[in-house]
Amino acid sequence: MNVENTIEAVAAAAKPAKIADDKDMLRAARDLTKDISEAKPSVYWTDLLLSAGVGYAALAGAILAPGVPLAIALGLVAVLTLYRALLFNHELAHIHRNALPGFRLAWNALVGIPMLTPSFMYEGVHTLHHKRTQYGTIEDPEYLPLALMKPWSLPVFVLIALLAPPALVLRFGVLVPLGAIIPPVRNLLWQRASSLSINPDFRRRPPEGDMKPRVFWQELFGMLWAWVLIASVFVLGWKPILVALAVFSLVAVLNQLRTLVAHLWENDGEPMSVTAQYLDSVNVPPPGLMAEVWAPVGLRYHALHHLMPSIPYHSLPEAHRRLTRHLGSGSTIDGANHPGMWHLVGRIARSTMIMR
Asked: Please, which residues have CB within 8 angstroms of residue 47's CB and are 6 or more apart in sequence?
C-alpha cells in the first residue's frame, strides 16, 4: 500500500479533526527553513512584471488578431500569464508590509485595479483561513466541506466563476457609487461582496486602521476603471470588452479549479490540529510540470504553505526538499502529496457520491 492509500485509509477511519499533531514535522518546519524565509525583491518584481507584461500584450493581440485561431492562441497565453500575475494577491496577504516596498501599490496598479480584484479583497480575509482555531470551521471564509456535499455542487462551484468578471464590473461600477449615498447598500456590499471568499455564511467586519484608507482609494480607482470599461463600448465597440471579459472569465474558472483541489475539503466544521490542516491541504510536487501552470506562485505547495504561511513562494520548493529529506519517505510530510489536478477532482467527486 503506497503512502497516499495509507493516508486515505486513515482519513476514512478517523475524522480530520481527530488527527493529532506530528511534533517532529512541526519542529523541522520551524528549524530547517529559517535561512530561506525572506522574500527576494528581484524574484517578485521580475516575475510580476513579466507575467503582467506578457499577459496584457497577449490580450491586446487577441483583440486585434485578424483571425480566430490566432486570437484564441493569444487569448490562452493571456489567460495563463494574467492568472499568474493575479495570484500574487496571495503573497500580498502574507508578506510583511515592509518586506517589498512599493510592490503592493504596483500590483494594484498593474493587476488589482485592471482586473477589478484589488488587494483589499484578500487582505484581512485570507489570514482568517490560516488561523488554527478557524480553519475548516464555519468562521473560515475560504472553506466549504465540498467532499461532503452533493455531486452537483462541484460543477456549480467551478462554473459560477464564469460570472465573476461581469459581477465585478457591476460591483465597482454601480454598487460602489450607490453605496456611497445609501448606507444599507454600502454595509451589505462590504459584508457580502468585498472579499474573495467561498463560504456563503461569511460576513466581513468593517475595515480598521490603515486598511480603511486603502479600501477607499482602491474602491475609488476600481469604480473609475469600471466606468472606463463600460464607456469603452461606445467608443471602441463591443469586441474589446467581450474578449477581455472572456479572458478574465477563464482566469476566474482556472482559479476556481485550483481552489477546488487546494484542499480535500473533508472537515465537517470542527477545529483541527495543524497536522490535520496540513493533511487536508494539497501539495503537487515535481516531477510533473502542469502543476506549475495551474497552481503557480508557489500554490502547488499549498499544504506546505499552510504549515509555514510566512515562507515566500520562491522558497517553498527548497523547503519541501529539505523536509522530505530530513523526515524520510513515508512520513507525514508525504501525506499531503498528490499526483495532479484530475486525480484530486476524481477523489473529491467520489467522496460526494458516498451516502451519508
From this structure: 84, 88, 297
Domain that holds residue 246: 3-352
pLDDT, one tens digit per residue, over 251-269 is 999 999 999 999 999 998 8
- Alpha-carbon distances of 183 from 113, 120, 180, 216, rounded to whole Å: 24, 20, 7, 15
12 grid coordinates: 476514512
d(CA 312, CA 145): 28
Asked if residue 184 has a cis previous peptide bond (ω within 30° of 0), the answer is no
Mean pLDDT of 160-172: 96
**For residue 234, how many other CB atoms are within 10 A of its CB?**
8
Residue listed under C-alpha cell 477532482: 345
Q: Is residue 175 within 8 Å of 193, Cβ to Cβ?
A: yes
Instruction: Please tell me whether the overall predicted TM-score, pTM, comes out greater than 0.85 for this model.
Output: yes
Single-letter code of the amino acid located at 176:
V
Number of domains in the chain: 1
